[in-house]
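Exercise: predict the fold of this chain.
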Amino acid sequence: MKMVTVSEAKSKLSALIDSAEHGEQVLIMRGSRPSVTLIPVDEGEICLSPEISAKALHSFEDEIAKERKSGKLVRLGKFPKEAINALKRLD
């Protein structure tokens, strides 16, 4: 395992990334304590949260509020059985 300080990591980041991509463990230390580890990323495992504008979010919240008032929105409960029963009542 390769261990480097934050200062070293700043100056050698590209080489450290290459090392991690080739399977070497790279531990970055903050002083004398371990801080982070560089690891390669599998693109299939990446899940990025989509961004939503404040206007779109407010519109969505308004839509939910209207559905709550109309009775169309059903709470499923905390437990699986409660959720299953609520879904069965919708049929």
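Check your answer against the key: The first strand starts at residue 2 and ends at 5.
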